[in-house]
What does this fold into?
Amino acid sequence: MTDPIIPKTTRRSALKIMGVAGAAGLFAPYLLGKPAFAQTPPAAPSGRVIVGLSQEPTVFNPLMLKIEVDDGIHFSVFDALFRTMPDGSIVPNLATEVPSQENGGLSADGLQWRVKLRDDVKWHDGAPLTAEDVKFTLELIVDPNFRSWRTAGHNLVHDIAVVSPTELTWRMKEPFAPYLSFLTETFIVPKHVLEREADKNAAAFNQAPIGTGAFKWGSRVAGDHINLVANTSYHGEGPYIEQLVFKYIPDLTVLYTQFKSGDIDLVGRQYITPDNYAEAKTLKNRVVQLQPAPAVEQIYLNLERPVFKDLAVRQAIYAAIDKQSIIDALYYGLPEPVESYMPRGSIYYNKDLPKHEFSLENAVKLLDDAGWVKGRDGIRAKDGVRLAFTNSTTTGNHLREQMQQFVQQTLKEIGIEMTISNLPAAVIWGDFWTLSQFDSVVVGINYLVGADPDVFNRFHSGATRVKGGRGSNTAQYSNPRVDQLLEEGARSFDQARRIEIYKEIQATVRADLPFLPLFSENSVQGWKSDIKGVVSNSNTRSESWNAAGWSRKA
It folds into this structure.
């Protein structure tokens, strides 16, 4: 890729818009290390908060392949250089400032970076955080022998130089506009612990991590819970609670029941199901609220499966899904139907995409015209391939399971056989997902990192892990035009042009249908009213992104 010719003034203004220049105003107290969210916090950590999760966190090295539920641990145990706030602004975390052209942290062409670190940060074992740890982290991510979660952007970093224990520089091979957002979710790991491990993928650290975060690793009972304890030497806000417990409750009905009974204090992913929302609002001593979610609920397809290679099949299945009835009957009308992966509140959101139309007649015509003919068993076939596939999701999610049954019955009417085969979260989101071993999956995905629109990791053909790529394109989607646009969007700092680029990507993806978008949820979040400081943040993937600021009465 080559650097496009962009006026220097355009780069500068775009960088400011994207938050590179720093943040102030609403979150200024947080930057000073004061409790911006917690109300009258205790002088010393006290009390415990039990977070109920429907999926079990299993990946504790924050740089490795993971799913969203693991982030609750990562945000609590580790810190990144920066973090994204609820309003989309980017503020310092381990760094003392956000690099900008004004403070000398970023060159005018976006290539040269300088990062200054706090001098009061210690690892949980007492060792000081230094620039060597940041350098080690950035180099580990792109180590070909390490199973990293994301390498896009990081693979452009070179010439990393440690200037002092609290300062380092690097140069980008080419401009990469999303990189600041990527760094908000790049948690720094300790060099002095991991460098002595021959195999970083199997390091003891991965099961008992050491970070700089507000909470230290305590203990884990596999299949039940993880206990974190307060880091009383934390450099930032809090912590104000003594213990943070993540409890695994795979059945969503049981998850809600335990919130209602008081056995858990705060409902994490997958939150309170819509069918329990009306009752939840009436519970005493509970805070229950709707929060627009950036994730899109969808039927995600493996495009290398013979049946899904035919666009007409994907179009027919989409036409045969009665989205509005699913939303109204199963989800009590709370979610909003969508056609894009882009969050509705983003300035990059394309509102002009074709609207889904439920029509079995159109679905039948698409299949007939494409040559899929019904056999004696009522299932269509073409060139020896039966129009049959398996659909999977996590066991215990009763609304998804009901939706699967609804879709299964409808598809059978038009000659498509969908077999339901659900799996525990730890199984489905392992190799089954990351190595594209599925036919189709019902899943909710947040495609963005922070507020940046980059989706290289999800849609670029080079991000297909099973084909030797480094990324999360598990649908094995490939479109040369999308590849071209993603590459241009990543190196452009012109926001107006980026809006055009990502709107075209959305239109192309909508036409190709590598996934069938259903709806974007309004998550029903709930916690006990004596817990203070809980703040929703649609720019992160964890309800506990600011658990350091939580407090409660002893």
In short: The two ends are 57 Å apart (CA to CA). Residues 481 and 550 are 46 Å apart (CA to CA). The chain is about 25% helix and 20% strand.
